[in-house]
Design brief:
This protein is α+β, with helices and mostly antiparallel strands. The chain contains 5 helices and 4 strands, in the order αβαββααβα.
Length: about 150
């Protein structure tokens, strides 16, 4: 988990989480992903926003299933005529190297990373069958979003 500030958020008993910090706060989501990938020790990493309270486990498991059946460097959800950068599964080594290269070039958007990687896409019909209300895409950007 990449978290801002100096204090790690409290976690429920029995939940083990490793925390990473952005090297330079305020550098954008790609820098946060880079920081997180810097501590990943597994082949695959889940990319999800801390502001995505309704991310459905079934959808994440489908992303993982597709990642395990393909050599793609990332797996993302189809949404209309494009794919979403979050949630996604990435192959940690490829994503780490690519993120660092993009950051060096001045890129800061997470979408930049996903667009450069070789991406397999979970089609919309498949993931929406697992999450008919499409809550996995909901994120909290404004205080008013909390009411939804």
């Amino acid at each position: 988990m990449v978290a801002p500030g100096v204090r790690e958020p409290s976690m429920p008993d029995g939940v083990a989480v490793r925390f990473a910090r952005d090297a330079d706060e305020g550098e954008g989501p790609l820098a946060g992903v880079d920081a997180g990938l810097g501590i990943v020790e597994t082949e695959l990493a889940v990319l999800a926003g801390g502001d995505m309270p309704d991310l459905q486990v079934r959808v994440v498991l489908e992303l993982v299933r597709v990642a395990s059946e393909t050599a793609a460097e990332a797996v993302a959800l189809q949404d209309g005529d494009r794919f979403r950068p979050l949630p996604a599964i990435v192959r940690a080594d490829a994503a780490r190297d690519t993120a660092r290269s993009l950051l060096t070039r001045g890129e800061r958007r997470l979408r930049d990373l996903i667009e450069v990687l070789d991406v397999a896409v979970v089609d919309e019909a498949t993931w929406v069958a697992l999450d008919p209300e499409r809550r996995s895409l909901f994120d909290v950007d404004e205080v008013d979003d909390l009411g939804r």
